[in-house]
């Protein structure tokens, strides 16, 4: 077995076990984690449960449908994933598309709203996304604004 720290390249064969992370110096691992933000991913359990037919006070109906978890590539050629939902109403022809990115940063995720031929870029707290009713209400409010 090779007892070399992958971060500093030092020999770790004579280092006490409690100061190691596998074969790496514990201090090297901690420095790495501190200096390199570990990407956290949002997971929406059962996103299809967001599918709903909502009757509003003005008697309009807004239907929200989960379209899937999609992969895409950004301008820096990095891959990312996002949940897609579409909302349509019985009073307007236009649909509203919602994209919820899975990358969590500062306890928020990217929440894009595509409507009227343009996109609105927002960031929402993770707890709002995980609260099914709150997420549906936000989507309904956006459809009503369009």
Concise summary:
The chain contains 3 helices and 10 strands.
Structural descriptors:
two-stranded antiparallel ribbon, 20% helix, 2 domains, six-stranded antiparallel beta sheet, alpha+beta, 3 helices, 146 residues
How would you explain this protein's 3D organization?
- The protein has three helices and ten strands; from the N terminus they run E-E-H-E-E-E-E-E-E-E-E-H-H.
- It is α+β, with helices and mostly antiparallel strands and 146 residues long.
- It folds into two domains: 1-36, no CATH class; 40-145, no CATH class.
- The strands form three sheets. It has a six-stranded antiparallel sheet with strand order 4-5-6-7-9-10.
- The relative contact order is 0.13.
- The mean pLDDT is 88.
Quote the average pLDDT: 88
How many structural domains are formed by the residues?
A: 2
Tell me the number of helical segments per DSSP (H or I, 4 or more residues long): 3
Unreliable stretches covering 5 or more consecutive residues: none
Strand content: 35-45%
Helix-strand string:
EEHEEEEEEEEHH
Oligomerization category of the chains in this entry: single chain
Helix content: 10-25%
């Amino acid at each position: 077995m090779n007892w070399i720290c992958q971060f500093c390249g030092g020999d770790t064969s004579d280092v006490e076990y409690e100061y190691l992370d596998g074969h790496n110096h514990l201090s090297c691992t901690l420095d790495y984690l501190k200096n390199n933000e570990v990407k956290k991913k949002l997971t929406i359990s059962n996103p299809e449960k967001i599918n709903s037919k909502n009757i509003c006070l003005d008697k309009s109906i807004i239907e929200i449908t989960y379209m899937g978890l999609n992969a895409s590539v950004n301008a820096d050629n990095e891959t990312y994933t996002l949940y897609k939902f579409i909302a349509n109403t019985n009073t307007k022809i236009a649909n509203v598309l919602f994209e919820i990115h899975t990358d969590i940063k500062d306890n928020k995720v990217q929440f894009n709203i595509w409507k009227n031929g343009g996109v609105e870029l927002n960031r929402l707290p993770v707890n709002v996304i995980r609260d099914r009713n709150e997420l549906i209400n936000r989507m309904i409010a956006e459809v009503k604004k369009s």
